[in-house]
Amino acid sequence: MMRRMILSLMAMLYVLTLSAQNIYDFKVKDDGEQDVPLSEYKGKVLLIVNTATRCGFTPQYTELEALYEKYHAAGLEILDFPCNQFGEQAPGTIQEIHQFCTANFDIQFPQFDKIDVNGTNESLLFTYLKQQQGFKGFDLNDKTGKFMDEMLRKQDADYDKKSDIKWNFTKFLVSRDGRVLKRYEPTDKMTDLEADISRELNPVLSSIMTRTSIRQYTDQPVSKTDIETLLRAGMAAPTAVNKQPWHFVAVTDKAKLKELAGNRGRMLEQCALAIVVCGNMDKALPGKGQGYWIQDCSAATENILLAAHALGLGAVWTGAYPIDDRVVAVSKAIKLPETIIPLCVIVIGHPAESPTPKDKWKPENVSYNEFGGKAE
Questions:
Q1: Which residues are catalytic?
Q2: How far is residue 106 from each of residues 83, 100, 164, 170, 311, measured CA to CA in Å?
Q3: Is the full-model pTM beyond 0.85?
C-alpha cells in the first residue's frame, strides 16, 4: 500500500513538472519561507546550485561569490539552495546556514530555504532541472572526479545511468530566456563555468553559441520591421573593398514560397519568410570567379541567421550555388536576371521547435602558431 502511494506521488510529481512550460513557472521559498516566483528573474542569466556548509566543496562559496561580484551588474543571479541529503553536510536551519555563509564567505547572492534535490520530497524545480540536463559523468582524468566516481559506484554500480544530483555544489546554468543550458558537477572546473557565464552574458556571443537550425515553424507572419532588421543586418556584413556585391530577395507570398521550396521539403511551405541571398555580378570584383562575392554573401547570410536568432525567430541556411539545378530552380521561381546568382535561401519564421544547441568545440581542429602546435 505504502509503495503504491509513493509511486502515485512520484507520478503526480512527474506530471506536474512536465506541465511546466519553462523555469519561470516555478515558485520557491526564500529563507523566510515566503514564496518567490522565478518569473522575477526573467531576463537574467541564472546559476542554480545545491549547497552544503560542511562539505569538502564548501570553499566553492568563495568562487561563487567572486563570480557574483564580477558578473552581477551584467545580469548574473546565483540562486543557492542548501540541501542536507549528501552526508548530512548541511545541518541546521536556513537562518543558521545563512549566518555561517555570510560570516565565513560574505556571500551576497540570495539563499533559499533548505530542500531535497532527489527522492519523493524533491523540489519540483530540481526535478525539472534534471529532466532538462541529466548527469553526463565526472571527468575521470581529474583526481577528484575519479574519487567521486569510485565512491558513488561502490554505493550503486549504475549510479551514472540516473539523472539524480550526485553531490553538493551541482550547478545548472540558465539562459536569459529560461533555457537550462548546461549542468556542472561539483568537480568541474570553475574556469569553464565562468567562460560559459561570460559568453551567455554577452548578447553577441550568446547568439553565436546558442543559434540552431530551425526546420519547423508556426503560421505566424514575420513583421515588416523584423524583415527590414534582418536585411539591414545582412548589409552590415564585411565586404571586400566595400563592393557590397549582394542582392536580397524577401519572399513572403505563400504560393511563391511553395514554388521556391523545390526539393527542400516542407520547410518553405511552413515558414513565413524566405530571404534569397544573391551575388550581383555587376557589382562583383573583376577577375576569375568575380572575386570575393561568395565570401561577402556568406558573411551577409551569417549576419541574417544571427539576427533572426536574436529577434526570437528561427532560421536555417539552405544552399543553391554552385549546384546548377538549384540555381536554375531558384532563379526561375523569383525571376532573377542572369547577372544575379542565388547563393542560398534562408528559411525564416517563428519556431515551432527548440532543439538544444550543440557544443561543436573540438580542440583537435585547432593549431597554434604552426600545424599541430598546442597552446602554452
A1: 55
A2: 19, 9, 30, 21, 39
A3: no
